[in-house]
Structures are given as C-alpha cells and as structure tokens.
Amino acid sequence: MIRFTHVGLTYHRAGAAGGDAVALDDIDFDIPDGGFRWLTGPSGAGKTSLLKLMYLAARPSSGRIDLLNTDTLRLDRRGTALLRRRIGVVYQDFRLLRHLSAYDNVALPLRLARRKEVQVRADVTELLRWVGLAGRLDHRPEELSGGEQQRVAIARAVITRPSLLLADEPTGNLDDDQAERLMHLIRSLNRMGTTIIVATHNMGLVARHPAPVLELVDGRLVRHG
Amino acid sequence: MAGWCGMAKRHASRADRIGLRAAMADRLLPFMVAAMSFLAALALAGSIAAGALASHWLSGAQGLMTVEVPTPTQPVAANGPLRQDAVLTLLQATRGLSDAHLLSGAELAALLKPWLGAAAADGTLPIALPAVIVVKADAQAPDAAVLGPKLASVAPGTIVDSGARWADRLAALTTSLRASAAAVLVIVALVAASVVAVAVRAGLSQRREAIEIIHGLGALDSDIANQFALRAMRLAATGGLLGGVVALPVLAWLALLSSSFVASAPAERPDLVTALPPLLWGVPVMFTLATALIGWLAAQVTVRGWLKRLA
Description:
The complex is a heterodimer of chains A (225) and B (311). By secondary structure, chain A is α/β, with parallel strands linked by helices. Chain A contains 7 helices and 10 strands. Helices cover 66% and strands 7% of the residues of chain B. Chain B has 2 domains: 19-59 and 167-307, no CATH class; 64-162, 2-Layer Sandwich (Alpha-Beta Plaits), CATH 3.30.70. Chain B is built from 11 helices and 4 strands. Chain B has 311 residues and is α+β, with helices and mostly antiparallel strands. The chains are: A alpha/beta (225), B alpha+beta (311). The interface between A and B is medium-sized, with 34 and 21 residues.
C-alpha cells in the first residue's frame, strides 16, 4: 500500500530572490499493493517531485507518506536505506555510474543486498540479454547509445524484483518496439505483485495500456482514477 | 571458459562490490603520512632516550653522598683523632653506607682545577680546603638530613650533600621531556588524521554523483564508509610503514650518538645495530598498525559526517 496523506513539498529558493516554491500541495491518494498508475501532467507540474518523495530522495514539508506499509517519517537512516532497496527507480537521466560497465551497474543493487556473486552473474547476464544488451555487458555508459543506457537503467531498477517500481519517462529514448518490450516487462512485474508508477508525457502509450491515472497540474492532484 | 574468466576480470572485484575502490586519490597521502610517521618516530625515540639517560644519571646521583669536613686535620679533642678520620670512621660504621673514600689532595685538586685554576693544584690557595669524602649509599642509608647532624656532632661544620636533590630535578626534567614527546605524538596523530580526512573529502567530492546514486539504491552509510575506510587504511598504513622504515637508520644513528652519555667505558659502547633500544626496532610495525587505525577512523568519521547531508 502506498498512501499520501495531505502531502506538501516546498523548496526553499537560494539566492537573492529567496522565498519558497511550492512543488506539491495537499496530495492525497492511495495505491493498493500490486497497483499500476500512470503519472501524467505538463512539464513542471510536480511529477518528478512526487517520484522523489516516493523513492525517499526528499522528505515532505507537510503531511504523511506510507510506502509499502511503512510510515516513512518514522524511519531512521538504516531503515530508509533498507526500504530504498525494495524500490526500483528508472530515472529520466538514467543515473548510471559512468566508471562502471553495464554489467556492474546492473549488479549494484544485488551486491548491496549481499547476493552471492554466482547468483549476481546469472541474474545480471540473463536480464541484460533479455533487454537486448547481451553483447554490451562490458561497455561503459559513455560507450552506449541513449536507448541502450536507458535499458541498462531499467535492468538495474528491476534486477531485484522490487516491491515498488517508479519510472520517470522510461520510454523516452526507446523506439516503439523497445517501448512495447519494456511495457511487457513492466506489466509482467506488475502481474507478479510489484506496485508500479510510470510518469510519462506519452499519451499514446497510456492509451495502449489503460490503467488508472494520477494527473498533476501546478503541484496539485487533479485526477486519480 | 576463457571468455568467462575474461569477463570476471573486467568486472568489479569482490573487494570493490559497489565500485568506489578508486574513490580516493592515492599519490600524496602515503608520503604525507610517512612524513608524519617519521616525526612521530623521532618524538618516540626522544622520549625513550630521555628516559634512558635520566635513569642512568639518576642511578649515579641517587647512589652517592658527598661529605665535606672543614679543618679536617685538626683533632676532634686533645689527643683525639683527626676530624676527617673521625667522620670517616663514623661513615664506615653507618648502616647502608659503604666504600667511603677520602679524596686525596690530587683528586681534590683535579676536581677544583676547572674553577680555581692552577692554584688548586700547587697548593697555593689562600684558603684551607675541606676534606671531601665520597661514600656509596644504598636504600637503607640514612637521609642526609639525619646523617648531617650526626656527623656534625663529631666534627662540627661537616656538611652532607646527597644526590636526592639532583635526582628530583632529573626526574622532573624527564617527566617534562616525556610529556612533550607525548604531546608531539598526539599532535602528529591529529595532523595525520586531518590529512586523511582532507583526502577522503576530496574523494567524496570527486565521486559525489556516484555516491548519491549508490545511496539512492539503498546503500547503508556503512557500505560507503567502509569502502573509503578500507582505501584510507591501506594508504595510511603504507605511509606508516614507509616512515617507520626510513626512520630506523636515523634512530639508530641518534642512539649511537647518545650511547656515549650512557656507557661509562669505550668497551661498553654499542655499534649502529645494537645501539637502538629493542622497542624502537618495532617502529615500522607499530606505525603501520597505528596509521592504519588512524586512517580507518578518520575516513569513517569523515564519510559518515558527509553522508548526513544526503536525505
């Protein structure tokens, strides 16, 4: 269960202008375990801020957030880190480690979870083969195309079979065929019980894969359902 | 098989499971820690040398008493023994005193010559010299404050000078030298920790983005701090070993120089190898372990403090 209860997020502006910028205002919704939601809205509406709260990169200025049945405001640093391991994130800018190969980038979450290297090798090799990067295991991000980097990012996000998968424009650098393969993977994970939230501008994709929508406008939730 | 092995080599090692092994620059740190270790070795050697010299001088100062008998050749009474002989007899009969030795005129002249010149040797001094008796004192010997009046009762004006006053001063000097050496060691350790902290902070800045990503993937603070601490520990230990090894010949040379203050006969003087106290031979090992610990702790504190700024 994911529950946002009257959540607000305000950024303090640095510099001469000063003042506060309200990114999210009074966000209130529930998503049951195993649910799927599209997150839509115009640029600057607060989609990325909402995702940040969900992957615990920011703390709300007000309200309460329950993630995977855990009150996030009560978590200490260790608890926060352990909860993050149950959340897979596909960032809009991929956020791959530039000095590591595609293989090591995807292996990172498993290694943080202290999985045996034999198991890591099997899982990572299989997943990278599945996303079409079997021949690119040893390539660093700078040696990969945008689409390939995005597939590495997706593989890293799902390698641990997370309880919650958050994706910020995951199909932005993929062609139609790759986008459909990704949606197939996401749907498969969802069927296995992973709760999924996908932020996108691609309304065609939303139309091809109907699911409830969280729509943000100017930091407020204007549609849920 | 060959491909599998090649793949394993190209990927991160077991010790570097989260890819932060090269997170710290390693060119200068070992040399800076080596310099700190060298200074610490000198301070430690100074402390040990001060202790050894003080111990040697104290054993000499504490074990001797000097007795001065004015107008020594006058009798204590009509037909009585000479004052110097009466005092000598009493000293020989006192428990805890032994080897009482009345300095001859030549010995006395040799002692006084540096201050009084040739007149001390040719007996032309315008004043009458007292007799000087040197006697060995052990732990059972009476205190100078007790012995003095006892001797004065036989030969009035007799003065007893024990080495205790000098021993107290030497002990105070030794304590202050050792405290100074300890302070230097503490300062050097703090500087070494600061050097490690600066290197770690530079590494954190260099890998800031990577650390934020790893942190976001669920790395514990300890996962990240341990990677830096392992690296810092190895680099600092290398510096400690280097500094300790370089310091050894210098310490041996200094020990050889100072041995002339301790050895009473040329035959007792050690060579370059035997001059160094056994404890100082352990400097490379001790400093390797100490700098490893300093590196580990400094990195842990620095990284954990830095990570607190992340959500």
